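Forum: Protein Structure Q&A
Topic: Joint prediction for protein chains with partners

I've read a bunch of threads here and the consensus seems to be that you should model interacting components together rather than docking separate models afterwards. I'd like to see that in practice. Below is the full input, 754 residues plus whatever partners are listed. Could one of the regulars post the assembled result?
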Amino acid sequence: MKVLKVPARTIAVFILPCLLLYVCLVFVPILVSLYTGLLKWDGLTSSQFIGFGNFKDMFLNDPVFWPSVRRTLLYAVASMLEIPLCLGMAILLNRYLRRANTLVSVYFTPVILSVVIIGQLWKTIYNPTSMGGMLNGVLVSLGLDSWTHNWLTEPNIAMYSLYLVSLWQYFGYHLLIQYTGVQNIPDELYEAAKIDGADGFKADRYITLPLIVPIFKISIILAFIGSLQAFDLVMVMTGGGPAHATDVISTHMYNSSFMSFKYGYGSAIATFLVVVCLVFTGIINTVFNRLERKYN
Amino acid sequence: MVNRKMKQTATITFAAVMAMSLAACGNSNNTSGTNTKDNAAPNAAAGSGNAAATDAPSDKKVTITFQNIYPDPATPAYKMINELSEQYQKEHPNVKIELDTLNTDQQKVKLKTQAASKEVPDITIVNPAAQMKPFVDAGLFAPLNDMLEQNGLKDTYQEGLLDYYSFDNNVYALPDGNNIEVVYYNKDLFAQAGIAAPPTTFEEMLKDVKILKDKGITPLAIGEKDSWTGSFLFMNILLRTNGGPGFLQDVLDGKKTFEDPAFVEAVDAFQALVQAGAFPDGATSIDANAGGNIFKTGKAAMWSIGSWETGAIDASPVAGKVGAFQFPTVNGKGDPNEFMLAPGSAFAVSANSEHLQETKDFLNFFASEYPKKQFELKNAVGIGQKVDGDLKAAGYSDLAVNIAGLFNQVKGGDLAFDNTMNPATAQVHLSSIQNLFVQKMDSAAVAKEHQAAFEANK
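Posted by a regular:
Agreed with the consensus. Here's the joint model:
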């Protein structure tokens, strides 16, 4: 602030337009859905205030809710576990390849494809043997007939099939972020370390990792929030079925609001989602702030 | 100096922002203002009978938005809506018809979203009875009674059909069809499996399913990702085990519960089909269109679906090889002449339309011309209006003539589950039936789940 030599009031005025926009487009809708979450409302006709009735139903009586929360969180954990893998890959690419850009672009391709296309593609890969599914076809030709499954319709497997597609799609995205981060670390540091006798893995441990922490944090938060909001892929591939076996929080919210005409209840689920997002983002931030302080 | 300039800029920016935010507030006020006004208007019109109808349509330029669900250019329905709209625009140069063409699921969601902000398109598509009730209760649709009286439109509809679209003696939508559920079967595949005739009992049907399955032919096509397909078939079984129509109505009236033996028996029969391997592998990830294509490309022997598919089957690779039969009796119960009835999607007019009169005039024209046009386009099987002309002479297929014949045998029947029960109960039902495709369930537990959902969402 002092560097700018501008009174605080002026800064406030210049921030105002963005702030207003942000308040209108983000905070107000959140507050509105907080409020509609307290209503018994079909979204069309008149509503009735029922206090925390929706939340009580959600936490105690809804057989679909907790399993969908569990699946969402598992989704989040899986996508966060993917990031270290991306980082490792990025480090290897940076060390052993002169021009890794082509390779990184190839990894990135699935990200630019629409989720609908990805979904349709993987649906044909996952198809049952009788419908010519590729994955099952490969298994059969390897003589592993007993390993074949109806990947998207067996309730115990379907969700994991979806996780895999999502991890596959976003691998390139996080790889690109990590790769850029690794590239931005100045070569001088490594050269100096080499003189001091730190090379290879040791250099990664003491130079790359500490310096990549902020980038790593971005990827983790993006992966986490992204997976909490996972919706499109589930909708395209299974629609939450069979019988809710692949429902996540957001699809359950959608089905409640728009298919069951329980708009108030859907808003209550949305509120829960917002709270979970805020709490976990807070936790992730604290953890990483500590890490950053440690390395500074 | 710099400081003053800064302050000036700041003031201007601030003023601009204030103006913008005020405009935003004002806007929302405006919308709600017009809404209340428009909401009052149709009520007044309904109250004073034909008051609205006597207003002569003016020559002012109007654009009528027509939301519809006929997106496939290969289908007769697509040609029908485009040709009729063009014809009307030619005759009424001041009217522009803007088609908002979507597929069924997209349209449902879009309408729901538009309804939430009271911005329903001039003409939109709704489903009958329980499915359109929330919209009618919210006062979003204009009553069409006055318009139905014009040009004798009302008399073109089949007796009683408009009842499914009427609430408190007001008709709120005009159906695009009136269909029944039949089982289509591929004669070639039946012959290949050595099955002489289509089944007349459920037990025979199960036996045929097993024979077809052993020959490596998918017995029954279905696309259960869209869960209404399984429900439609299940309800046909329930119509038999209940010994006649009215089960859901009895539940609604409190005379029966879902734990009634008829319902449990229907679940058992349905599970017998699943266990016999009647459906394609991975049925719950196949969407409705893809499910139909399994039959239309000759890979499945049977398909239990609404008669609205007749035209599409005649235009598919299996044309000429397909017959249709009535759903058989189950455990000796039920009458094959009772059908699952499917009064079609229907055209409704927004109560908030800025040019209500012009919209009604157009819809009157559209609905009056509709049967003739559909007949011309060989799509007249299962339309809800009387149509002059002999199908056979007009070059319709044997299948179409056969289906048209079945219509004459209809002795009554039931509406689909989601047309009878409220949406929340219907959703529980749909996913409960979907579950039967992937897991063997205790049928009593399925019945209990239905009853619990019904009571929780009364």
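The radius of gyration of chain A is 24 Å.
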